[in-house]
Structure formats: C-alpha cells, structure tokens
Amino acid sequence: MRQIVLDTETTGLDPADGHRVIEIGCVEVVGRRRTGRTFHRYLNPERPIPEDSTAIHGITDEHVADCPVFAGVAGEFFDFVDGAELVIHNAPFDMGFLNAELERCGWPRLEDHCQVLDTLQEARHLHPGQKNDLDTLCGRYEVDNRSRDKHGALLDSELLADVFLAMTGGQEDLALVSEEASPAAAAERLLQGGAAADREPLPVVPPSEAEWEAHRRFLERIQEASGDCLWLGREGEERQ
User: Which residue in 159, 179, 198, 213 has its CB near the most CB atoms, within 10 A?
Assistant: First the structure.
C-alpha cells in the first residue's frame, strides 16, 4: 500500500474565516517503509500571517513573500498524493484547509481520490483518556523529536511517519503474499509448496541439555499449578 503522511501549517484555525495554507509537508511510505520521497512547499497565503500563528510555526510574511501561491503547486501536489492513503494527525483540520485550497483553484476534493487515516483517532483508540498530541506520541513510541522546537509541516510529517509505523507495528496484514496476489492464489501457492520452495531451508538447532532441563522444570510448574500437564508426559517423545 502507498501511504502519504501529511501535515500543513496555516495562517489560522478555520478556512471559513479566510485562513490559508502556508506550508505542506508530505512523506511517502510504501510497504511500511519510508521511501525517501517527499513533497514540501512553502506558500504565499495572499494575506497577513497573524503573530499568534507565527509563534507556533515560526513562519512570517517575509518568509513566504516570494513563495508560490497554492494554485501554482496544486497540480504537483495532487499528482503526489493521488490514489494514496493519507495519514494525518487530526485529519479534519488539514483536510478542511486542503480541500478549501483545491476548491478555490478548481481541483477535486481529496476524499474523491484518496483514502484518509486519522492517527489522532487511532491513538485515542489505543490510549484512551491519555494525551495523544504528536510530542506525547513521540515520547511514548521513542521517536526522537528533539529538533522540534516549533511546528513544521515536513518535520512533523517525518515524525508522524515514524510514530505511525511504531504505533501500528503489530497490525500488518498477516497474509504471506504480495499485494498483487489474491487470497485464492496465495492459498493455492501454499498448497503446492510454492512458499517453501522460494526460500532456503531453515536450520534446525537442537536444544542443549541445560535448555531441556529448563523446559522440564517449566512443565513441572505447570503440572503443580494445574494437576494435568500433557506435555510433561510427552517430553521423552519430543527429545527423540
């Protein structure tokens, strides 16, 4: 699956109040690996940036005065994300701004061409009743965010990509098939021994005497606790 981890910085909180996108950062993830491909643009919002917003992301009017407007990069941005699953922290915020910008210059809404995964909702499901902002998640999943003294769309996308991959590490598709293979084809391939034929045989390393002894003591503890440990009676068979 191709995923685009995405973040924006804006002039304010609500596009309905005339606020605009001033930075877009995107990080490509394919097969649960960052590919190194990114999309990053600063944008001229065609309006002043309030000081309270600059305090959050550090972007000033002077910083973006010579940058393109959104319409100038809309096609390039759309081509980069088209068909991907967008991974966004607090997706309604960024999607609202991006759709407003796309609509303003005649492009379709992102939902019509992309799936959307909201990592804030995922984190709230995994960690109910706890803080789930990006800095907290970085600490929880041991992602180094020491360079994040202010918000930044590309930096935050890179951090979120690492958090997302750590947060969902146990939720990959368990089918041992490529994305192109159908479940029926995979089952047929396994029945015919295709999966085993594709790899070197695994080495078999017999346990040492100390490991067998530790195993036997563990089974005896099960026997004491339950009164019936079937494995204990089969230990001799296992060692043959």
Answer: 159
pTM reported for the whole predicted model: 0.70
**Model pLDDT for residues 154-206, shown as the tens digit of each residue:** 999 999 999 999 999 844 433 333 344 445 555 555 555 554 445 566 666 77
For residues 37 and 79, give the distance between their C-alpha atoms in angstroms, rounded to a whole number.
13
Structure tokens given for 148: 């994040």
In residues, how long is the chain? 240
The verdict on whether 151 is a catalytic residue reads yes
Angle between helices 70-81 and 91-104 (to 10 degrees): 120
Give the amino acid at 32: R
CATH of 2-167, one of 3.40.50.1110, 3.30.70.100, 3.30.420.10, 3.40.50.300: 3.30.420.10
